[in-house]
What does this fold into?
Amino acid sequence: APWRMLAAGAALVPLFVMTPSWPMLAGVGGLLALGLAIGGPRGIRGALSVALGTVTALIAMWCAMRITGAQQTMSWPQWITTGAAAAAMGMVGVLAMIPRHLTVALDPVQAALRKLPTTLDAEVKNLCDRSVAIWNTTKDKLADSDAGKGLVRDGVLKTLEVAAKSAEVKLSGTTESELVARMENFDKRIEAATDTEVKTQYQAARGALADQLRYRSHIRQGQERLLARMHNHVTTLEKFQLAATGLEAARVTATGANQQLDELSQSVAASGEALAEIELGVTPTADHATA
It folds into this structure.
């Protein structure tokens, strides 16, 4: 506002009528900051603004004095020295204003991508790469206020989240064929056993192996379902991206793609939770059988 500039100009008058000294410069800096802060924030925030403005003005004047009083600039024409000093003050002011106009943009998708484990299945990793590529294309074409951009971001984040969970469930230890072979061996021993206690122990051991086989089957089935859901999810993201960023963007809501994408995201999340629950159910039985 013009009156702010007038107040700031009045604060500079002592520079022309008084002998420069640090107390005088501090006073000028304070008056300059106070003049520029008129009509601005009040309270603690306003006081901090005035204090920061005073420090900035002092630094700017110090830079100017370093130029005008330097031995290297004594042979310069007066107008060049003055111009260089003024430019130094201006640079300090510009640098002080930069943080106000900067915004930190954090990409949650890239952050989630960096957290993915390195042990991902190759097919799951490929799905993650495809979903991230969808996001990289969408975020540049849709405005932050566009609801479609948020849906794509959340959908991609859900893909990465479920992919990370899938890496936590690994089929390790005895294979299905080994379990079947051991069960057949126990069947023969049970059939040949004549002692009741021996037969009971073999039957219990065979039952533990059967439990392991059943749990492994459940885990494998859960992994296959999860992978199928992820494929469906990523292809739906691709479809939505084309609709949202292409010529049919205006008809996205009418086609129901928004609702479909949101429902599919919830479905993928539910599948990931179910897979984690299956893993928790395996450990005690497996440990018991090993013992």
